[in-house]
Design goal:
alpha/beta, 7-stranded parallel sheet, binds calcium ion
């Protein structure tokens, strides 16, 4: 109990600038993300993605993206860890993505099985993995259509289970997610439940991949099609009768209006996008890579220091690099002073003066760096 109180207290005193991250329709323009950060993300993360058909949209788009732009390399090396070294392993510089692992989705076969499967996978409690630890540091699950009929208690349970996993695995980043559109508009149960997820993530500084918001906008971002009863197939109500089905389709319209745009070419090269238009899969994939770049340390389009010439984060205050890093002692700071490094629980794992930290190996994961002189804290990725 004392430990729990301590954890809660530490969470409360986490630096205010260590905010959560929301990935939405404003996060699909990868031309804003320096390639250097994509490479950092590839090297930093070893993830799992449990999903069924709707969730496959992200990976379908990633496949199309890498076919045109090899920098977005990823590789599924689940068999290597599952069955042994005879199977191929993702190179250190390539994103390791276990696709469809664990099986099921957030509502399939029920509302809670995914959490137990995640726990078993991460801890290898059933000994399923021949090679362990398998070094997973990013876990994502998606919904199928279940949020359309979920009530508030079910969503509260989802959020609670996610938070519980975060406490059990402080060096693993967990991606919260909303569910795809279903044509029920602003007042529909789906949007109300998605808003419940968003509110929780905002209030608790979580990482949210806003699946529904991404498919609510075309690349111009001027119209919220969810309000127009947008569907998972990108249909919307264009004649104000409240019925989107068989009506207009924003993805088809956008591609027709921009036939020579890079996005249209990518969409044309994309395989079947489950339940949806290929443009939607491309946008989801681009948002996904944006998310990885942010997690790897890219400060976002408003950041000052971007690209290989200045690989730190420098929106204000101080910069710290390299990021990702293997040992805290390798870190360098743009100004001298006292620094502290927190883990995801808000616990101080290292502290030092003069712009140096003890040469300490911390477990791989996401950390936060704070300067005693103030300013925003910095997200730091430690890799092995
Ligand atoms: Ca209509």
């Amino acid at each position: 109990m004392r430990t729990l109180r301590t954890v809660i207290l530490l969470l409360l005193v986490l630096p205010g600038a260590c905010r959560g991250l929301v990935i939405d329709h404003d996060c699909t323009d990868l031309s804003q993300v320096p390639e250097w950060w994509i490479r950092q993300a590839r090297a930093a993360f070893r993830m799992t993605y449990g999903h069924t058909s709707h969730g496959s949209q992200v990976v379908t788009g990633m496949d199309a993206l890498v076919d045109t732009f090899p920098v977005y390399q990823f590789f599924d090396d689940h068999d290597y860890y599952l069955s042994g070294a005879g199977n191929p392993q993702a190179p250190d510089s390539v994103l390791s993505l276990w696709d469809y692992v664990p099986g099921g989705d957030l509502g399939n076969p029920d509302w809670v099985t995914w959490a137990g499967l995640t726990d078993t996978m991460l801890s290898n409690a059933n000994g399923a993995y021949t090679i362990y630890p398998h070094q997973r540091n990013l876990v994502m699950w998606s919904w199928c259509g279940q949020v359309s009929w979920a009530d508030s208690a079910i969503i509260a349970d989802y959020l609670s289970l996610m938070s519980g996993l975060e406490l059990s695995y402080p060096n693993v980043t967990f991606v919260y997610i909303t569910s795809h559109l279903d044509g029920s508009g602003v007042e529909g149960n789906l949007n109300i439940r998605n808003e419940q997820i968003r509110a929780y993530c905002r209030a608790h500084d979580k990482l949210l991949f806003d699946f529904a918001d991404i498919e609510s906008y075309d690349p111009d971002g001027l119209v919220n099609y969810m309000v127009l009863y947008g569907t998972d197939g990108c249909e919307y109500d264009s004649d104000s009768n409240g019925n989107p089905w068989g009506d207009a389709n924003w993805a088809q319209q956008w591609v027709a209006a921009h036939p020579d745009h890079e996005l249209s070419r990518l969409a044309a090269a994309c395989g079947d996008c489950a339940h949806s238009e290929r443009l939607n899969c491309i946008l989801k994939a681009r948002a996904f890579w944006w998310m990885l770049a942010r997690l790897a340390g890219w400060p976002g389009p408003s950041g000052v220091a971007q690209g290989p010439a200045a690989p730190g984060t420098a929106t204000a205050g101080f910069r710290v690099w390299p990021n990702p890093v293997r040992s805290l002692g390798q870190l360098r700071f743009s100004r001298p002073g006292a620094y502290r490094v927190f883990n995801a629980l808000g616990q101080v794992v290292a502290a030092g003066n003069g712009g140096r930290l003890p040469d300490k190996a911390a477990p791989a994961g996401i950390y936060f760096v704070r300067s005693a002189a103030g300013g925003p804290c910095r997200r730091l990725v430690v890799i092995r």
